[in-house]
Design goal:
single chain; about 375 residues; alpha+beta; globular; binds zinc ion
Length: about 375
């Protein structure tokens, strides 16, 4: 580790122990024009090194012009920060806590909008979006710890080329705005404040979650390829009665050949030389599909097929493929990538009286809960 990053690491941890850290969340991309409004706004223009404080209600407009490209040559640049010491900041109909930051995307002459927000406030809005603000509080608390772990890991890791830690999208996790928080989501955040999951050796690894596993959760390596410490695949019968029913569909043989060929090229630097495909006996909980093209066996991750065709065609990674009547039949269970916490399973466990620690230890049996920063 270089001295600079060591210093950053030390400073980060010193401040994290003392207070709730702030996380920078990308909330909008490729904007041409940005208007923000608030009471007693403080505006800092970083490119001009100027600051201004307004009194009363103020609307501030920015046009995202190409001029920043000449100044910097970096892909992204912090242009302006806006905060309100006495209230919230509005962008359109949405209201935010913390600070709004305008980044110039110098490659597209547009702006990105980032919300720098205390991690606990972020969790209270996220719970309403990623779960449901009316769910039992123990399920929300389990989700709070998982989502905080995911965000904290990103924050700790940092990024050399991005001026934010997370995107508010299904790529990372979906956060809400101030009014998405409910009494229960605030309670779930407060009662687990600072708590994160760590692996068996104490390492912080991203805590993943999904809507419905459909019977069995998956490990990160089965879906994305990267090994994360401590993960296990667990049998979950608790989500069966709720959410998306078991699903099925058909894919034309020709279409499957094209899909498999694309997956082989993209993920395995390989391709199908012979188009005569034969699917080997499959099971819904095999994370890999085995198929012969001519006399050559290919083994591909089912998740890679799902990445390629999207969740409309393959709602989850737990599916079985078979060939009947010259068509490929797909039957699947669950919704989402299937790794880590099963949200509908957590809901059922909370209804049965499990507390959030028991829910987390069911889906993350080898992980432990640790307090990352003091309440
Ligand atoms: Zn489940």
């Amino acid at each position: 580790m270089r001295t600079g990053s060591l210093l950053f690491f030390y400073l980060f941890f010193s401040s994290a122990q003392a207070a709730v850290p702030s996380v920078k969340v990308l909330i909008a991309k490729s904007l041409n024009h940005v208007q923000v409004e608030g009471m007693d706004l403080r505006k800092t223009i970083h490119t001009q090194k100027t600051s201004q404080q307004y009194s009363g209600k103020k609307l501030i407009s920015f046009k995202c012009r190409p001029g920043h490209k000449r100044v910097l040559g970096k892909q992204s640049l912090l242009v302006a920060s806006l905060s309100s010491p006495t209230g919230l900041i509005s962008w359109g109909k949405n209201k935010y806590q913390g600070e709004l930051q305008l980044l110039a995307d110098t490659s597209s002459n547009s702006c990105d909008l980032v919300n720098s927000i205390p991690l606990e406030a972020y969790i209270t809005t996220l719970l309403a979006k990623e779960m449901n603000g009316t769910w039992p509080v123990e399920a929300l608390k389990a989700q709070a710890v998982a989502a905080r772990t995911y965000a904290f890991e990103r924050l700790k890791r940092g990024s050399s080329d991005k001026l934010y830690h997370l995107e508010s999208s299904e790529k990372d996790q979906v956060s809400g705005t101030f009014f998405d928080a409910t009494e229960k989501t605030v309670m779930a955040s407060r009662e687990t404040e600072g708590e994160i999951l760590v692996g068996p050796t104490g390492k912080i690894s991203p805590a993943f979650f999904h809507s419905k596993c459909g019977g069995k959760t998956l490990r990160p390596d089965q879906v994305w390829g990267g090994v994360e410490e401590g993960y296990r695949s667990v049998n979950c019968t608790f989500c069966q009665k709720t959410g998306m029913k078991d699903w099925n569909g058909k894919i034309q043989n020709k279409k499957l050949i094209s899909m498999v060929d694309q997956v082989l090229k993209k993920y395995y630097s390989d391709q199908i030389a012979d188009s005569d495909l034969k699917i080997m006996p499959d099971s819904v909980h095999n994370s890999e599909l085995r198929l012969y093209a001519g006399d050559r066996l290919h083994i591909i991750k089912k998740s890679y097929l799902r990445n390629l065709v999207g969740r409309e065609v393959l709602p989850s990674n737990n599916f079985v493929m078979s060939m009947r009547d010259k068509h490929i039949h797909v039957e699947g269970q669950g919704y989402g990538h299937g790794v880590g916490l099963c949200q509908l399973g957590a809901l059922e466990l909370a209804k049965r009286g499990y507390d959030y620690r028991q829910i987390l230890s069911f889906y993350f049996p080898r992980h432990k809960i640790k307090t990352a920063y003091a309440p």
